[in-house]
Amino acid sequence: LRTDMTSISVVPLGAGQDVGRSCILVSIAGRRIMFDCGMHAGFQDDRRFPDFTYITKQGSPNDYLDAVIVSHFHLDHCGALPYFTEMVGFDGPVYMTYPTKAICPILLEDYRKVTMERKASGEQINFFTSEMINKCMAKVRPVSLHEEVHVDADLVIKPYYAGHVLGAAMFLVRVGDAQSVLYTGDYNMTPDRHLGPAWVDRCRPSLLITESTYATTVRDSKRSRERDFCEKVQRCVEQGGKVLIPVFALGRAQELCILLETYWERMNLKVPIYFSTGLAERANHYYKLFIAWTNEKIKQTFVDRNMFDYKHIRPLHDKSVIDNPGPMVVFATPGMLHAGQSLQIFKKWAPDERNMVVIPGYCVAGTVGYKIINGAKKIELGKQSLDVRMAVEYLSFSAHADARGIMQLVRMCQPRAVMLVHGESAKMDFLRQRIQQELQLPVLKPANGESVAIETEQVMVVEAPVGLLHRRDWSEPARLRAGLLLPPSESALPAKRPRLLARDAALKEAGLAEHSLRFTTSLSLWSPHSQLSDLVTKVHAVCARAVGDRLAQLQDGNTISVLDRVTVLVKPLPPVGRQQRDNFQLLVSYSFENEDLGSRLFSLLKQEAKIEQSL
Asked: CA 574 to CA 297: how far, in whole Å?
């Protein structure tokens, strides 16, 4: 049942018309939720984290927020979490899936180490410590897929499988039965070699907040892209070159490792393949641990052979290997060439035109990866200027949904409004227009720091017996007379939902006797020289045309039953005075519930019969 209009307020502190630093504040039915708490790879100053002063200027974050929800372990979604909990002072609760909780501290510690290396070189950096990471993770409450978690009596969260990376989840937040928000984080609607596709039921949220990284892209065949990737890598190493593949430790790393492992085996290639030690090794450990989150093929073959135990790919234990002569392939973190081992290897290999770097995913503006994708041949790295002579290939193996996938998700969950985040403004405009034209839904794309309110209809959920909902007359205009709305029964607690009961059940519960109210409308007819049977036949024909032959039944010679709900009686009247005409009376009788049908039949009979009305 729909009641008055209300609103949901949203403020992006990050990822508003931008990619990176995801942090979305949502106010819904008196509760405030923070979705994600990430860092921005394109900044090395205070702009790396969301602007938490928006919260602190209004008081303590514990008074302002009810919960923080982290969608997955990528740093642009969780990288600021220890800073927010331990340095800004939020005490929790923080919700994420079990794989995300297991892997987050590994990536956060690696991020801290890389950042501290810059601090050692003289930069002033206010950053979290290893101890703060541990204290932060102690505030996390892990959740399972499709588990409904009650934050309080009315606030419920429910995670759905998002694909993308191990443990990634979309979160549905619902307050009572009134309003709900589905936040996607990052997701992929296409299955890959190690993960399944994102899935959500028809939850019909008041607002869908979706990423839009690839809002204007419709990807080509994945198989042709994989073939192109493998052939270019093979061609480079056969010509004596080295191939650098910058990846994040989890996600694309495993996808491309499985792809090259399979290709190397099929082509019987002997060129060594390495991946970054430590981080990627532990990542593979967690893929084995959380095998249930992978796709069906991985799970089915796991007993016979673990797809993450590679034959042709080995850990890069000795960093001096990258200086060895001869061809090789190296997977190195991170994926945007903004820091870490991938950037160090890039510096050494970039001047040699025999070498190649393959960028397999999205790169944020300001990173080295973004610059070389866009054609930069000279890169300034601090005081160092680097000539880029190596080949640069951009082959998107991104685990984000493309435009087709985003539209598929919108149709799948059927929201009442859509908000685009985690994307570029111009690309959002294209997708917004498409959603508005094809699905007729309101679409918003707020910038960072911009507060928007989404008007939504207040919805009241009531409990009703199945038999009442299956009544044939439920779709008729009189449907609101089909039942009575009663307060919750004691047995209905703690759901506290009102109940819609059929009239009989409501009367029985209230201890009341049923009274029946009937209407009878009469018409006086004159039909010279007509027999009663002829007139009854004519009246029956009118009723049959209105509802169908089988639903207008002739009974007792002069009585017609219509739908078993309205009775039409034709009877002769004695002559009045000296009148020489045949008089008849037509009686149309119906109950209060069937007033619409009875009145309609009465009007039809009146029009057909050329009569004089006498009431």
From this structure: 89
Per-residue pLDDT of 334-365, as tens digits, reads 888 888 889 999 999 999 999 999 998 878 88
Question: Whole-angstrom Cα distance, residue 186 to residue 198?
Answer: 10
Q: Which of 109, 148, 211, 255 is catalytic?
A: 211
Residue partners of 77: CB distance under 8 A and separation at least 6? 22, 36, 37, 38, 70, 71, 185, 186
User: Using CA atoms, how far apart are residues 3 and 544, in angstroms rounded to an integer?
Assistant: 40
Q: CA of 264: how far to CAs of 181, 218, 260, in Å?
A: 45, 29, 6
How large a percentage of the chain has pLDDT more than 70?
85
Distances, alpha carbon 551 to alpha carbons 155, 265, 375, 425, 588, in Å: 51, 74, 77, 61, 16
What is the rounded CA–CA span in Å between residue 523 and residue 3? Answer: 44
Q: What is the mean pLDDT of residues 441-452?
A: 96
More confident residue, 124 or 214: 214
Whether 211 sits among the annotated catalytic residues: the reply is: yes
Contact 438, 255 (CB under 8 A): no
CATH numbers and ranges of domains, the chain: 7-218+399-455 (3.60.15.10), 222-394 (3.40.50.10890), 518-613 (3.30.1370)
Determine if the peptide bond prior to 105 is cis (ω within 30°).
no
Question: Which residues contact residue 359 at a Cβ distance below 8 angstroms, ignoring those fewer than 6 apart?
Answer: 246, 337, 369, 372, 373, 392, 393, 394, 395
CB 539, CB 568: distance < 8 Å: yes
Q: Cα(410)–Cα(148) distance, rounded to whole angstroms?
A: 22
**Residue 511: how many other CB atoms lie within 10 Å:** 6
